[in-house]
Amino acid sequence: MPPIRGDHSSAARALTLLRIFLGVIFLVAATGKFQLHRVAGVVPLPMASSQWQVELPERLGGWLADHPDGVTAAVTRDVLFPNGRLVAGAVAWLQLGAGVGLLLGFCTWLAALVAAAVAAALAISAASRQAVDARPYALLAVMALTLLIGGAGRYFAVDAWRRERRRRQEF
After folding, report:
1. How far apart, in whole angstroms, are the C-alpha atoms of residue 114 and residue 147?
2. How far apart are the C-alpha atoms of 80 and 23, rounded to whole Å?
3. For 17-48, how does the pLDDT look when each residue is reduced to its tens digit (9 = 90+)?
4. Phi, psi of 63 (to 5 degrees)
5. What is the DSSP letter of 2?
6. What's 38's DSSP letter?
7. CA-CA distances (angstroms) from residue 124 to 15, 52, 60, 157, 161?
8. Is the CB of residue 45 less than 8 Å from the CB of residue 38?
9. pTM as predicted
């Protein structure tokens, strides 16, 4: 039976599947950027891997060589490139947070916004290098924007559970 006017359950299910799919992609991408380090030989602490801490500044340097002028180049040259290891850790943690948020449907709009920003930055970085295709990153950014615009997180999510719980408490 085709959906009647006002019935948005099909769209909600599609957004839920898209949200979970994108969350898994970001979670898998983030876990590849982490290593477990032991504090005092006992407590495991996840930190950005040394390979990722070297790879991201190389990417920034490659982008900067192709785009030496402009405001973005100045920010990259003066802020991001000197702090490459810190930026690499921040990107890894942002990807992990976006992945977990999207997967669980927790603060979905914020997770989708972070996912869109990270994917757009990776698309711009990949577009500057001819050896890497930027289209998958651009597609991830569009998918995250779709979640943001579509209001994902209303069904089958922690956000929906919290909203329903608040609604019951008001009465």
Report:
1. 12
2. 26
3. 888 999 999 999 998 888 887 777 788 778 88
4. -65, -40
5. P
6. E
7. 26, 18, 11, 31, 36
8. yes
9. 0.79
